[in-house]
Every structure is written in C-alpha cells, then in structure tokens.
Design a protein that fits this description.
80 residues
C-alpha cells in the first residue's frame, strides 16, 4: 500500500486514505517529515516477506534512477 505527499496532502489507496481522519493524516505527514513529492510505502504481512518486497522495490527504483554503480559491482572491490 502507498500514500504519496505529492501535493503536501496525502493521496493514495482510497480505503487507506479515507479511513484516516484529517488530524491523523497531518500527524503522519509530520511524524515522517513527508514533503511534497515523497512516497510513503506500507508493507503488510510477515516481516521477512515485507522486507523482501520493499528491498526489491528499492533496488528496482535505484536501477531505474541509475544510482547504483553497476560497473564497480561487476569488477569487484578495486582500490584506486
């Protein structure tokens, strides 16, 4: 499940957003220090499964944004 703070207000999955009272939405945004453009992810289920799913998502996004140095990974750890 996800919430986004694209506009500074929470948007996302209808039942999740609609179940939160306005003061709870505000509290969540403040607690997480969410800014416009941030994405808040919730993973439900067994902790190991949730960690695995979120880890894969993190790596997928990192590859898409090209923030992982795949050349160094292929070459191994080479000291300059």
């Amino acid at each position: 499940m996800f919430l986004s703070a694209f506009t500074g207000d929470l948007e996302g999955i209808g039942p999740l957003v609609s179940s939160l009272k306005p003061e709870k939405k505000e509290q969540l945004v403040k607690l997480l220090d969410a800014k416009a453009g941030d994405l808040i992810l919730f993973a439900l289920g067994e902790q190991s499964s949730a960690n695995r799913v979120l880890g894969r998502l993190r790596l997928f996004i990192a590859h898409k944004l090209e923030v992982i140095d795949t050349v160094s990974q292929k070459l191994g750890n080479i000291d300059p």
